Amino acid sequence: MSPRRQLLSGRAKRRSALAAAMPLAGCDGPQSAFTGAGADAARALDLWSIMLAGGIAIVLLVLVVTLLALAGRGRARRAVASERTVLLAGLWLPVAVLSALLVYGFGLLEQAAADGESDLEIEVTAEQWWWRVVYRHEDGSSTETANELRIPVGRSVRLELHSADVIHSFWVPALAGKRDMIPGRVNELALAAGVPGTYRGQCAEYCGGAHALMSFYVVAEPTAAFNAWLERERADARIDDPAGAALFAAAGCGGCHAIRGTGNRAGIGPDLTHVGGRLSIGAGTLRVSGSGFVEWLRSHQSLKPGNRMPPFEALSDEDSARLAAFLESLR
Amino acid sequence: VDAFLQLLTNLDETAYNRLAHGNARDPDPPGTALLAGDLGALRAASCDRCHDSAGGSPASRFVPRLGGQSAEYLEAALRQYRDGVRESGFMETVTVNLVDREIAALAGHYAGLDSPVAVVPDAERLRGTGRQLAVAGNPERDVPACDACHAAGRLAAYPRLASLAAEYQVAQLELWQRGGRAGTAAGRTMSLIAARLSPAEIESVAAYYEALPPARERGASDSAAGGRG
Fold first, then answer.
1. What range does the domain containing A295 cover?
2. Which of B189, B197, B221, B223 is the best mutation test for A, with the most CBs of A within 10 A?
3. A183 and A256 inside one domain
């Protein structure tokens, strides 16, 4: 059993058991709506489970009635054909079921709206084909990172969703429903994780060439760990490798990428201040590691075709390795 | 060639030499020197006719000034022309017979050459809109600052742009926009960036770099540039 599964609450465990009983065990995971690890996702999963069970019950009822009508004896056939049965099953039952669902649905919407009240705000901007993430602090300052959100467990977080170019959609199936990100418009989404863990999100609206490789991670951790992380993330980069930092500037990386605490302030590509401490390179394309950075530098246009970063195949092997080691050291 | 022949009928000797030999001081080196592999003679017979020399600027504003480029960049460029991966109707022809030793010597010569700069420093052009693109790029369209790679102190593999004739720079950027110069890895880096530039941006940034004296390049004393010496 993985550490993440050990951390699942009773509720999520019951849900997993339910999912397993309905041959859907394979659908459980860090990017699955069946995980139901967030308040919003849990409500959607509840609604889905109720509708599935209700749908099955209604199908069975219809089958029974059909069998009675075809093969039943006289009395049963007369009962099925009676005006009272038609009125009850054909009119009053659908009215009652749909009204109940509607009332239940309004209740869910109200709960979702209440989740939106939060003192923690994160601005997420979708750009072809990555995610710019800005944490807003109480003192008015902000901290930029990319392709990864960290959130405290059990606390609702208000996301402000922007798009820099075309329509994208923000979706972390295990935590919440999807929300479109539309140019010139700000959408909001409440994100809350009931269970600590690492969840995977994905752009859910086709947005151009590298759309399929526009992913991100949401790491939900206990409040103390989250606060410690935010403190570290807020700080400037600690440069342990000055020669690597000099190479970063000399090779032109600073033309697009910022590393806070150095002279590199460009905001065209993802902020790399603490990139060595993240989970992925290229918005979920590769795992963060020294060899991952080398691979990205050498062949990112074939790993993620059409992405906006110019190719750097001309860098020598030695320079690629030194840059990779430097990026990995930025934790 | 046609135009040259038309002019030929009423040319004096100085004008003839300028057209036919460019900056070459000794227009007709003895063939024996060429056969002996005398690089000075080779340059005089070939390179100097178009490019800059200690005493003169390039013969045309479509020909780059080579003095002061890094030996590493020049050597790579000459090998690329010779090996047919960088296209040029002129350069592929004249480099086809060069051996590595000659390429290295020529690159070393131009890297150390302090040739005159044709354009007088022009303060107005240095303040123009081209400067913005050169030092800050255009984040709206994901154009990085040109200086991120082309200022002094950057990798020796990257060419310097200061004092290059504007016509040459414009021609190269337009070539990338049309899909040319994509045969080399460094060329493909520029293909992607050049595609994001507007015609007005190309004109203004070329004018900026042409007016920028090599010695005053931004980044030369900029600690943030973090050059590797």
1. 242-329
2. B189
3. no
